[in-house]
Amino acid sequence: MIYSKYKYIAAVAELRSISKAAQKLYISQPALTRIVMNIEEELGTPLFNRAALPIQLTYAGERYLEEARRVLAIDSSLRRELQEISEMKRGLLKIGTNYAASNLWLPHILPVFRREYPGITISLIQQNSLLFEGDLLRENIDLAFTTSSASSTNLTYEYLSSARILLFIPADHPILWGRDLSGNTIDNILTLPPEVLNDQDFVLLHPTDGFGFTVAGLMKASGIHPANVLYAPSIVACYRMAASGMGITFATPYATRYTLPGLVPVIAELSMQAAYEHNAIAYSRKKKLSAIEQRFIAIAKDKVCNAPLLQPLCSAQWLKLKTPPYDSSDFRDFA
Predict the structure, then answer these.
(1) CA distance 284 to 287
(2) How high is the mean pLDDT of the chain?
């Protein structure tokens, strides 16, 4: 094997004896002597000072040993990774996913992962982000898409993205009367004081949901007291019901991907310090990630940050949704 010569030199250097190294390597002393001499001849310099007892490395030998150990460490690491891949050819990867990840991110992540690991079975478990901790610690799931809104010291979080929390308001809502809404897009957001939202109807995720938990905290900190709250089962339902006039909702810019032509809400923000939702993949702090799991996380990070269809709608796309006639081909890639 190509790395055998490094092992031979390392053994002789460690034991400071060719005979002891030969015993450890299960070869004869004359054979090991010839191997060492051949390596030295190939390099054009002695690696050992044989006049010293016990045998000692020369300066060239010390440098050779230093690099040999580095190469052997790389070889060992690569072998472990390949072994993990081999063992996972028919493995199972259990992913906990919230609604947003299931509907927006996974359709872009899973096809890439499947091409690289066609033999891996993917199991998706969808539930509220706040409930994933127990399943991760009990190893019922391997990884989970979640938010760091209520982060746990028992989990490790691999950061995916941060998104500003915005208001989405029905276009004909009374609190918008008299306000300049011309050119309202993700790049031209209306600013509202929190008090104008008091005694208004809202459509929200329940606080037991990760994002719902964040929004509940934001509303409390802002002193917002709604008249009525309709709790919807998903962020898509919240967003689209708000656009249809059922109330005001909070969502991130990613939600613009759920916009239906003709049902376009007004985008606003609170006139206070900006609030953000941080998205991550979580796993147990005690868990040692396999090469497969590491690769899944790497693909997720790349797609969430770089896939064009996972970014908020640009101003031109938004304005097309507001202005009839609608060309469905403009929006065929929407979630």
Answers:
(1) 5
(2) 85
Over its C-alpha atoms, the chain yields an Rg (Å, rounded) of 30
Q: Tell me if 132 sits within 8 A of 282, measured CB to CB.
A: yes
From start to end of the chain, where are the E strands? 48-49, 56-57, 92-97, 121-126, 143-147, 155-164, 166-169, 190-192, 201-204, 228-231, 249-251, 266-270, 276-284
Highest mean pLDDT among 62-76, 123-137, 146-160: 62-76
Query: Which residues, in sequence order, are bridge partners of residue 192?
Result: 270
The whole-angstrom separation of Cα 104 and Cα 102 is 6
Phi-psi region of 302 (alpha: psi -120 to 50; beta: other; left: phi over 0): alpha
Q: Which residues pair with 270 in a beta bridge?
A: 192
CA pair distance 41, 63, nearest whole angstrom: 16
Average of per-residue pLDDT across 11-17: 86
- In this predicted model, what pLDDT tens digit does every residue of 209-222 receive, in sequence order? 878 888 999 999 99
97/135 Cα distance (integer angstroms): 12
Asked whether the beta carbons of 305 and 186 are under 8 A apart, the reply is: no
Quick check: 327 and 320 in contact, CB under 8 A? yes
pLDDT in tens, 156-188: 999 888 888 999 999 999 999 999 998 898 889
Q: State residue 30 phi and psi, 5-degree precision.
A: -60, -35
CB-based contacts of 267, cutoff 8 Å, min separation 6: 166, 167, 168, 184, 185, 186, 189, 190, 256
Q: How far apart are CA 255 and CA 46, in angstroms?
A: 68
Query: By the 8 A CB rule, do 123 and 94 touch?
Result: yes
pLDDT for residue 166: 93
CA distances from 123 to 67, 208, 328 (A): 43, 23, 33
Residue 329 confidence (pLDDT): 47
Coil, strand or helix: which one is 130? helix
How many CB atoms sit inside 10 A of residue 4's CB? 10
